[in-house]
Every structure is written in C-alpha cells, then in structure tokens.
Design goal:
Blueprint: E1 3-4, H1 10-18, H2 25-36, H3 49-58, E2 59-60, E3 64-71, E4 77-84, E5 89-97, E6 100-104, E7 108-110, E8 125-128, H4 131-146, E9 165-168, H5 178-191, E10 199-203, H6 207-216, E11 221-225, H7 231-237, H8 246-260, E12 264-270, H9 278-288, E13 293-299, H10 313-325, E14 330-332, H11 346-352
Parallel strand pairs: 1-2, 6-9, 9-10, 10-11, 11-12, 12-13, 13-14
Antiparallel strand pairs: 3-4, 4-5, 5-6, 7-8
Helix pairs in contact: 1-2, 4-5, 6-8, 9-10
C-alpha cells in the first residue's frame, strides 16, 4: 500500500524524504502542496521531475482520491465520489452559492442511524472517518475551485476561489465521531481560516454529543434533523428517537443555542401523508414557538429503495405558510444537483450495490 503523505507529521515526512536521498527543504515544498489539496505529485512543479515520478510510484498525496465527479447542468453543484485508502467510498459536495463556496462533508463511511427516508444508512456503518479524511474533502473542493491558480494560501475568501463555508451534513452521524469531528473543525478554522459561524454540524439528535459540543464552546451552527413533530411519528422515521426523544433533543439544542448565541436550524423533510399535514405544522409550532431557531423545509429527494412520496408544491407552501403565520422563521431549501443524485448516499449506493 502506498504511503499517504498527508497523514505524516512534519518530522515523519522529513525522514521519508531524506531517506530517498533528497534535501530536507523538499519537505516544506511538499507540505505547501499538500495544504493546497494537490491530487498527485506531478502537479508539484517546483520539485525535480525525477522526484515527482518517484513519489507518484511509491506514495499518494491525500487520504482520498476522486473516482467520479459530477457537475450539475447549472454548474452550481459538483458531487465527488471519493475512494479511501482501504477501498471504501464516501461522497462530498461542492456548492457554489451567492454567499460563498460551501462544502458538504461526510463524517463516516455509511451510517448506523437507520433513518427510514435516507440513502446513507442503507449499507450500514463501516467506520468513522479520520480528521485527515474529513479535511481532505474540503481540500479537494478547494483545488477544483482554484482552477489554474493553485498558488494562493487559503484565507476563507470566496472571491479568491476559496471554500468559505463547511456543512457536516454528508453521510454519517457526526456526533458519533466526535473527537475526529472536533479535530477537523479546529483545523479548518485555524488552517483554512473558515470562521466558526461559517461552519454547520447536523445531527439526528445524539444528546450526549450535543452536551459535549456545549462544553467545547465553539460558536458553530447546529442543525437538528427533526423531521417530525411528535414522538410517535419520529419513532417511525428515526430509530434514534427511541433513545433520545424529541423533547430531549430540542432541550439540548436550545441549551447549545443559549451557550453560543447561535440560532438552531431545524431540518424537516416533508413526506407526503406522513409528516406534512396541517396538524403536523401546528404540532411543530407548539415545539418551536418563541425559540431561537429557523425551520429548513426539505422537499424529499426520491430514493428508489425507500417507499415515500414527495408532497406537492402546494402542500409544501401551505406547510410553510402555517409556520410563517405563527411567527416561525422558515424557509424552503433550494433543491440542488437533482440531476446528479446529490442527496446523501445516492452516488455511493449506485457504485456499491
């Protein structure tokens, strides 16, 4: 198996390079390329050609590599299928928006949560991702954004073709991989200059993990995958609710909000005849009235293995209007990348089964 240079410490990389008979200063040159997300050694033009060829034979740069890249017709969304060192597959998504460039990051290979509407959980959980594997997803998007100009250091400015926002909403439950998650967030903040308020972590409701985030104290954005306004419906859709019920999850979320001052995002996938009725909207209002939160209504993205139906546009807007009339901050998430299966897990499923 080839050595992944991104996973080496600076002393380890220095030894690796000097063992090849190269001077120590090559270490700094390679580290700078790795920090920019170089996909291979051939792009490292300030290294001798003979060294680039040698390194390409015995090592690799990042802990994951692109095996498929799909870009939507409007060119605003790019989805990556990535292969890890052990052959496992993960996904990440680059979204170009009017407020910056956002990357959706996976935190696990697969997912153990078993949510009934989700593609990510169909193959179960294989393992947690390392801090480096999460960071590499961001660097891969950064490399693509930079195009021909790979020389600038990251400063979080989308005008410099930087990644400016990160959402940990890809495959996996981030709070089941908490230590690696925190390490990843610390690094994108310190190394890529992505501010805490431009980072969002989504959880289906691991209360113990939310409590740890409260102790950690970083003012990131927290999103709660709620998807139901009663315990009975949420029990059907999300098995985790039988461990941490709806009220416990919201209580922890709003304690996080009080500690950090950040508004909680409530994610709510609308499923026809399951959680989209007028009564469901009223139940949601009872839970959220007067709270520091915003409801993000998500039209269901069809997964062939799941037997749900997306509600009509009229039903979606009716649900939204009921919330608005009761002073609940709400928006409908814009559908992105439908033509490239950009919903979590879809591309991985199609390339695994």
């Amino acid at each position: 198996m080839k050595q992944v240079l991104f996973n080496l410490t600076q002393p380890e990389l220095e030894k690796f390079i000097t063992d090849l008979g190269q001077p120590k200063f090559r270490t700094k040159q390679i580290l700078e390329w790795l920090a920019r997300g170089a996909p291979n050694f051939l792009v490292m033009k300030n290294l001798p050609e003979s060294l680039r060829i040698q390194l390409n034979k015995i090592a690799t740069t990042l802990p994951c590599k692109i095996i498929q890249k799909l870009t939507s017709i409007d060119e605003q969304t790019t989805k990556f299928l990535l292969k890890l060192y052990d052959g496992e597959l993960i996904e990440s998504v680059l979204m170009r928006t009017n407020y910056g460039n956002s990357v959706c990051v996976s935190s696990q290979v697969g997912c153990a949560m078993g949510c009934k509407f989700c593609a990510s959980t169909l193959l179960g959980l294989k393992r947690n991702l390392t801090t480096n594997e999460m960071l590499a997803q961001v660097l891969i998007s950064q490399w693509v954004l930079r195009g021909a100009d790979k020389t600038q250091k990251s400063n979080g400015d989308p005008n410099n073709n930087d990644v400016s926002h990160v959402v940990v909403m890809g495959t996996g439950e981030p709070l089941q991989n908490l230590e690696n998650l925190k390490g990843f967030l610390e690094r994108i903040n310190s190394e890529l200059n992505i501010g805490w308020r431009r980072i969002t972590v989504s959880t289906c409701g691991i209360v113990s993990g939310i409590n740890e985030l409260i102790k950690w104290g970083r003012p990131i954005n927290l999103a709660i995958s709620l998807h139901a306004a009663t315990n009975s419906t949420r029990n059907e859709l999300m098995p985790i609710n039988k461990i941490y019920n709806l009220n416990e999850v919201l209580d922890a979320a709003f304690r996080f909000s009080e500690k950090t001052g950040r508004q909680i995002m409530i994610e709510y996938i609308l499923l026809a005849n399951k959680n989209d009725s007028e009564q469901d909207a009223k139940n949601l209002i009872e839970l959220l009235k007067g709270k520091n939160c915003m409801v993000n209504i998500i039209p269901w993205n069809t997964v062939s293995e799941r037997n749900f139906i997306a509600p009509s546009t009229n039903i979606i807007h009716k649900f939204q209007n009921i919330l608005l009339k009761n002073s609940i901050h709400v928006r409908i998430r814009r559908e992105r990348g439908a033509d490239i299966n950009s919903a979590c897990g879809q591309l991985r499923i199609n390339n695994t089964v």
